Amino acid sequence: MSQSEEEDDYMSMVFDDAPKAGKETSLQRRARMQKEGEAKARAKTRAEKEAETEAAREAGLATALDSSSKGFKMMAKFGFRQGDTLGKAEDARKEPIHLSMKDDRSGLGLESERKRKLRELVEEAEKEVKRSKIEQVDYRERVRQENEEKRLGVELYNAQKTAERLVEEDDQSAREGQEWTPTSEYKSRQTISGKRSLQSINILWRRLVRNRLEKERDRKRRQHFNDSLSSTLPTYISADEDEDADDKLALGHDVTAIEDDLEDLSDEDLELEEFEAQPLAERLQKVVVYLREAHHYCFWCKYRYSSATLDGCPGITEKDHD
């Protein structure tokens, strides 16, 4: 019985001829060789080749010089030992110089030239941004100044209109209340020999009167041109001596009659030019001061006070009334 127990069970799946562990069978060897052949036959990509080259280069640079090499033996004769620096200086280089591989086919120095041009482009772009910001600030400042000039021009016009109106009111009051004698402030409507004199008008609002007279002159000229039967021949002199002034004006024979009452519009007014050469703010300030001193009127309060002290007025400037 014991002998039968020692015999192998013929039903077991254990085979004596099974390959031992670690030994490659022919099938395994054929599969391995097929895989290796396929791997060798496959063309490597450029990235894979570059990665392998980089890895091999880094491995070579990381490997110390072998003492059995001819180069190491030559340096050892001059006193070099593994780990020492090259040269006599203690702070000399111990590690090899890092390689910067050139992958393209461009010439030497082209990369540095590109970097220089790129740096110049960046600097130019930064300057352009700064210039644009400065121009934006200048533009806003210029627009602000233009708007301020327009506002001051409107304020000056209103102040001149107010001054002219107050003079006319005082002129009318003086005529109604007592025998009127024109003063230096009441000469805006004075006539000399039946003709208007611009020089007699206060310089502070003389421009208003001059512009009004120029518009009136232009209007009369247009009316004369439209109404005249022979406006295209203004120099024609009629032989008829019986024509009166109205007939001559209607027929265009006497064009000088239009400007009889505007005699000095064509004359140069140096005083007015000098006044208008001043900044708008200064001209406005002069008109405001005149209104306060001559008429007790505050232009910013829009009120005429009863006394020269202008009690209740916060000040003479516009900022005082903010």
Textual characterization of the structure:
This protein has a domain at 113-177 and 279-322. The chain contains nine helices and four strands; from the N terminus they run αααααββααααββ. 52% of the residues lie in helices and 2% in strands. With 322 residues, it is mainly α. Strand 3 (297-298) and strand 4 form a beta hairpin. The strands form two sheets. Strands 1-2 form a two-stranded antiparallel sheet. This is G-patch-domain-containing protein.
Report the span from N to C terminus.
130 Å
Secondary-structure element pattern, one letter each: HHHHHEEHHHHEE
Structural Rg: 54 Å
Please tell me the overall pLDDT: 76
| Portion in helices | 40-55%
Number of strands: 4
- Summed up, the helix count is 9
Structural class: mainly alpha
Poorly predicted runs are 179-195
Shape: rod-shaped
Major sheet: arrangement of strands: 1-2
Query: How large is the share of residues in beta strands?
Result: under 5%
Report on the biggest sheet.
2 strands, antiparallel
Short characterization:
This protein is an all-alpha fold and 322 residues long. 52% of the residues lie in helices and 2% in strands.
Secondary structure topology:
Elements (H helix, E strand, L loop, with lengths): L1 H5 L19 H16 L4 H17 L7 H8 L32 H68 L13 E2 L2 E2 L9 H22 L17 H7 L18 H7 L3 H16 L1 E2 L4 E2 L18
Antiparallel strand pairs: 1-2, 3-4
Helix pairs in contact: 5-9
Essential attributes:
G-patch-domain-containing protein; 4 strands; 322 residues; two-stranded antiparallel ribbon; mainly alpha; 9 helices; single chain
